[in-house]
Design brief:
Oligomer: homodimer
Family (chains A, B): Belongs to the PurS family.
Order of helices and strands of chain A: EHEHE
GO molecular function (chains A, B): ATP binding; phosphoribosylformylglycinamidine synthase activity
Largest interface: A-B, 31 and 31 residues
Structural class of chain A: alpha+beta
Radius of gyration of chain A: 17 Å
Strand content of chain A: 35-45%
Keywords (chains A, B): ATP-binding, Cytoplasm, Ligase, Nucleotide-binding, Purine biosynthesis
Largest sheet of chain A: 3 strands, antiparallel
Distance between the termini of chain A: 12 Å
CATH superfamily of chain A: Phosphoribosylformylglycinamidine synthase subunit PurS
Strand order of the largest sheet of chain A: 2-1-3
CATH topology of chain A: Mth169, Chain: A
Pathway (chains A, B): Purine metabolism; IMP biosynthesis via de novo pathway; 5-amino-1-(5-phospho-D-ribosyl)imidazole from N(2)-formyl-N(1)-(5-phospho-D-ribosyl)glycinamide: step 1/2
CATH architecture of chain A: 2-Layer Sandwich
Number of domains of chain A: 1
Subcellular location (chains A, B): Cytoplasm
């Protein structure tokens, strides 16, 4: 079983009103040490046994491009974490 | 400058229809090696210089409890990553 975490964030050039609103609210609560705040999505995919690392990375990239991240506005990174049987 | 990543996910007992829908859609696209899929939120907070590690961890916990995670349905983890001057 292999667990892959995919992190999807807005590209730098994209304004994120949600992040702005949270940062302002935190400022009103007295947390004004935060110079920047980003909000994104995280996905945790558990792959079945018996897949090679290359096969998993290929699928993760395809899945992220096709469904998890909007190519125009977002970019993604991923981490392959627990894995008992990666060959 | 210290960057802290906060990951907010639903508790195990909470059903996440969004994750189910994505997993089913991926199955229809032919990606049926995924045995489990979780969807969560990620926050990246950049703290100003001059704060100690304890002060940052205290603020991250307070902020997460008060605003970023819904205590009843979600739990959170965090990672303190880049940091030039943590004393």
């Amino acid at each position: 079983m292999t667990v892959v975490k995919v992190f999807v964030n807005y590209k730098e050039s994209i304004l994120n009103p949600e992040a702005q609103a949270i940062q302002q609210a935190l400022g009103r609560l007295g947390y004004d040490n935060i110079t920047q705040l980003k909000v994104g999505k995280s996905f945790e995919l558990t792959f079945a046994d018996g897949m090679t690392r290359e096969a998993i990375e290929k699928e993760v990239n395809e899945i992220s491009d096709r469904m998890l991240a909007n190519y125009n506005m977002e970019n993604y990174t991923y981490e392959i974490s627990e894995s008992e049987d990666l060959s």
